[in-house]
């Protein structure tokens, strides 16, 4: 009985060591993974504020606003 318990404990220790080592390797790989986005790049919608298409739309809206005499010709997002 005692010999079987010792082998079981040794097997459990070996399996636990393998699982722990695999977890450590996976964590190290994940920590060294570099994002494609630079750290100083803006996130969310701010990332699109310098895009040519966004600047074009903003310019068109500003032109319509000036031509309309201060009235928005498109719908508003908050009608209140």
Give a quick summary of the entry:
The chain has helices at residues 2-32, 52-67.
Structural account:
By secondary structure, this protein is mainly α. The mean pLDDT is 78. It has a domain of 55 residues. It contains 2 helices and no strands. The chain is 59% helix and 0% strand.
Q: Which helices and strands, and how do they pair?
A:
Elements: H1 2-32, H2 52-67
Give structural attributes.
80 residues, mainly alpha, 0% strand
User: Describe the biggest sheet?
Assistant: none
Distance from N terminus to C terminus (CA atoms, Å) equals 81 Å
Shape: rod-shaped
Proportion of residues in β-strands = under 5%
Structural class: mainly alpha
List low-pLDDT spans.
Answer: none
The count of helical stretches stands at 2
**Share of helix, binned:** 55-70%
Task: Average the pLDDT over all residues and give the rounded result.
Answer: 78
Number of strands: 0
What series of H and E elements makes up the topology? HH
Query: What's the alpha carbon Rg, rounded to whole Å?
Result: 30 Å
